[in-house]
Amino acid sequence: MTTETTRIRTILTVDPIWSAYALADLRADLLPLCRWSVAGDGLALIFTGLEPPILLTVGSPEDVAEALSQAELPEEVYLSVRGEHLSALEGWYDVKVRRVMVRMALGEEIALTPTGQPLRRLVPADVPAIEALIAQGGPYAPDGFAPYQVEDGFFFGVEDGTGGLAAIGGTHILNYAEGVAAIGNVYTRSDCRGKGYARAITTEIVSQLRAAGLPLIVLNVNSENQIARRLYDSLGFVEHCSFVEGSVRKRIA
């Protein structure tokens, strides 16, 4: 690990739950997709593996502002930032478009009861079906899916009996060396909801991540999605913090 990476990791481990995605990005194969800017205890990460790039911030507002001033900032980014960092970002981006999210982490282990649902482990050949399902949209449809995630981690689905998928869920990212994983893309088609598919899929993902020895498991949920929040509460996830996200563009000079 280089001196710079060690410095980055030191900042991230102050609050590993909030920094979970950035810690996962320390994987050797993902580092080329990352642009880091560090100032004091502040950090700005631009992850270019998705479109638009993700901008994540960590640290005190003052040092985050300094880190942003030193960064090569894209014209458009997808924010994943704490509320206290918005004032620093307003110097570069129009941050009116935002969504309040909740970061949750798996707390004390509870017994996960198998649901008996007919789950199938998804593979890269299922990517078109996954994308077709997500494209049906809705207020809480996933917007962070990338095909490499299917092969990279754990993805499960429920078939709809007509060659498509009724529900999906998987991991956004994981890093065995850092012991961290993020669950995401949990989505059920509107006409198939209420059948326990999301519970079955999330339970199976958690079981797989536990078996893989990943101690820190996190997920994001829209603050307004009360059904999903109750589900994750029941599975042992605990709210850690709120944050804002959304696609923003640079201010016009």
Summary?
This protein has 253 residues and is α+β, with helices and mostly antiparallel strands. Helix content is 26%, strand content 31%. The relative contact order is 0.18.
List keywords for this structure.
single chain, 253 residues, alpha+beta, 8 helices, 26% helix
Describe the fold and architecture:
This protein is of the alpha+beta class and 253 residues long. 26% of the residues lie in helices and 31% in strands. It contains eight helices and eleven strands. It has an eleven-stranded mixed sheet, with helices on both faces. Strand 3 (54-58), helix 3 (61-70) and strand 4 (76-81) form a beta-alpha-beta unit. The longest helix is centred in the last third of the chain and has 15 residues, at 197-211. The chain is globular, with a radius of gyration of 18 Å.
> What is the β-strand count?
11
Helix count?
8
Elements, N to C (H/E): HHEEEHEHEEHHEEEHEHE
Name the overall outline.
globular
User: Sheet with the most strands?
Assistant: 11 strands, mixed
Question: Helices, strands, pairings?
Answer:
Layout: H1 3-12, H2 20-24, E1 34-39, E2 42-47, E3 54-58, H3 61-70, E4 76-81, H4 86-89, E5 99-106, E6 119-121, H5 127-134, H6 148-152, E7 155-159, E8 165-175, E9 180-188, H7 197-211, E10 216-222, H8 226-234, E11 237-249
Parallel strand pairs: 3-4, 9-10
Antiparallel strand pairs: 1-2, 2-3, 4-11, 5-10, 5-11, 6-7, 7-8, 8-9
